[in-house]
Write a structure and sequence with these properties.
With 520 residues, the chain is an alpha/beta fold. Helix content is 53%, strand content 18%. Bound molecules: ligand C2E and magnesium ion (2 copies). Ligand C2E binds next to strand 9, helix 10, helix 11 and strand 13. One magnesium ion binds next to strand 13.
Length: 520
């Protein structure tokens, strides 16, 4: 208005008034446009923020807002980003985790199984599903609050027995599950864990001043034996739980009948082996070793036998690894050493020409600090001359600490004990250590001897072993000789001693004496 008045008073012609009005209008339009432009610039971040919020609420789709604004609007956008991110995390937690225990729920657990399958490269893993007994009864008798607290405490106990890498989940209701990857042997790690869990859950719970007992059942499936996809593995674990429930004990059950049977046998062996010595179920058989050059019986190998009332005759190939795992091989091995030496001395006293007694020594025995003393004592107690004792060791014993093994073997050798390297050719060790080893004999493994006459590869391996032994000035014994052809082949190669069913199976002490008499 001020401009208009000033303009009117300055000029009076109509053209001048019109052009003044036009200029004024033009200036007003520019001003309005500038204001609108500034307003739009100010509003656009707010419009963008509103759009993002809208998208999140409608479609649960989160887009991050730009963070390059320094003013209040910039702060608003940054806060919106952070809020939506936290909201996202909360929602994700609510959908993936169990509200009561905070453990992953069934859906998230399934994702973990799927990932384990993808990563496994056919490596085994175990799915352990655990079902709590009597939750229903506790809920109805004592109320849900008590039941809920029980579930939380159960979750804590389960977690306390897991290892890093295990995934524990609650499936809802009274079911929990554990995913354990990186298992080498299903009869070991999942069984140990299940036993610990069952034992721990059978301990009473103290809930709001009450003492409550509950038990559990466990079903186990092993990938890939019991299923190759998530649904199969879970369904079979359920079946295994049902089987466990039918047994009506605080127990676990594998899905696969074959695994169950194998496991039961291993457990029965473990349990019974503990008492095998005191119940006098062990005995020793002796397998003759014949000197090729003279055809004479020159040595015997002591081979352990176990006759158990429940399990029958158990092969040492089956129970020796278990004895090693449980360390029972230490007392059992000492027993074999003592009785084999004693028997050898007796034969000598009975007039049999002196034989070398070859005793298998397990790696655990070899690692015992008192091995030398044990051998000294045994020889002293039985009165056997050290010249008639040989120890059979395997390559596995040389893997860990070769220098220490060599030092120990030297000690044995200076005492006059002979050493044979058993099952030669089956280990993975390099041949370069052979010349360093203070040993007397190489025993070619039975697996090469079996096809010596028919398979050129096995024949070549045996020839190479004999040549190697000759160049290192070692004696060579072939085990598992079953036929005349095999014997002839080995004889022409220059083998020193042979052992196998072609001459005799392992015999009891009395039968060996008869064999000796007739063989002569
Ligand atoms: P090893 O020391 O290699 O013993 C040779 C095995 O081959 C014996 O099996 C023997 O009975 C068997 N054998 C011998 N000749 C023949 C043949 O012509 N054909 C066939 N098919 N088999 C033949 P066994 O007695 O079952 O013993 C198995 C393994 O158990 C032994 O293999 C040895 O590693 C272990 N073992 C046996 N007794 C003892 C022991 O007192 N201490 C330790 N640490 N291990 C033992
Ligand atoms: Mg042997
Ligand atoms: Mg052998």
């Amino acid at each position: 208005m001020l401009i208009f008045d000033a303009a009117v008073s300055a000029t009076t012609s109509p053209q001048a008034i019109a052009s003044t009005l036009l200029i004024t209008l033009f200036a007003t339009l520019i001003g309005t446009a500038a204001t609108l432009f500034a307003l739009h610039h100010l509003l656009s971040p707010i419009i963008l923020t509103s759009k993002v919020l809208h998208q999140y609420l409608q479609l649960r789709k989160r887009t991050d807002l730009p963070t390059n604004f320094q003013d209040e609007v910039g702060t608003l956008m940054a806060d919106t980003n952070r809020t939506l991110q936290q909201l996202d995390e909360i929602i994700k937690h609510l959908t993936d985790y169990d509200g009561l225990t905070g453990l992953p729920n069934r859906e998230l657990f399934q994702t973990h199984i799927q990932q384990a399958i993808l990563k496994s490269a056919n490596q085994q893993f175990a799915l352990i599903v655990l079902d709590i007994d009597s939750l229903k009864e506790i809920n109805s008798a004592l109320g849900r609050t008590v039941g809920d607290l029980l579930l939380r405490k159960v979750a804590q106990r389960i977690i306390s027995y897991t290892e890093s890498g295990d995934i524990v989940a609650r499936f809802g209701g009274d079911e929990f599950a554990i995913l354990r990857t990186n298992i080498t042997d299903f009869s070991d790690s999942p069984v140990t864990l299940s036993n610990r869990l069952l034992e721990s859950l059978s301990e009473p719970f103290s809930l709001y001043g009450r003492t409550i007992h509950c038990a559990a059942k466990i079903g186990i499936t092993i990938y890939p034996f019991d299923g190759t996809n998530v649904a199969q593995l879970l369904q079979n674990a359920d079946t295994a739980i049902h089987q466990a429930k039918q047994q009506n004990l605080n127990t676990y059950q594998f899905y696969s009948p074959a695994i169950n049977a194998q496991l039961k046998r291993v457990l029965a062996i473990k349990e019974n082996l503990r008492y095998a010595l005191e119940r006098q179920e062990l005995s020793i058989h002796y397998q003759p070793r014949i000197e090729v050059a003279t055809g004479q019986l020159v040595a015997v190998e002591a081979l352990l036998r176990w006759q158990n009332p429940e399990l029958g005759l158990v092969s040492p190939a089956e129970f020796i690894p278990i004895a090693e795992e449980t360390n029972l091989i230490i007392p059992i091995g000492e027993w074999v050493l003592y009785n084999a030496c004693l028997q050898n001395k007796r034969w000598q006293q009975e007039g049999i020409a002196p034989l070398r007694m070859s005793v298998n020594l397990s790696t655990c025995q070899f690692k015992q600090a008192n091995l030398i003393e044990t051998i000294d004592r045994t020889l002293q107690d039985t009165g056997l001359d050290v010249a008639y004792l040989e120890l059979e060791i395997t390559e596995s014993l040389l893997v860990r600490d070769l220098e220490k093994a060599i030092a120990l073997l030297r000690k044995l050798k200076t005492r006059g004990v002979s050493i044979a390297l058993d099952d030669f050719g089956t280990g993975y060790s390099s041949l370069s250590y052979l010349q360093k080893l203070p040993i007397d004999t190489l025993k070619i493994d039975r697996s090469f001897v079996t096809n010596i006459a028919s398979n050129p590869d096995d024949a070549a391996i045996s020839k190479a072993i004999v040549a190697l032994a000759q160049s290192l000035e070692l004696n060579i014994t072939a085990e598992g000789v079953e036929t005349k052809e095999q014997f002839n082949f080995l004889r022409t190669q220059g083998c020193h001693e042979v052992q196998g069913y072609y001459f005799s199976k392992p015999l009891s002490a009395q039968m060996l004496k008869d064999f000796f008499t007739h063989y002569r």
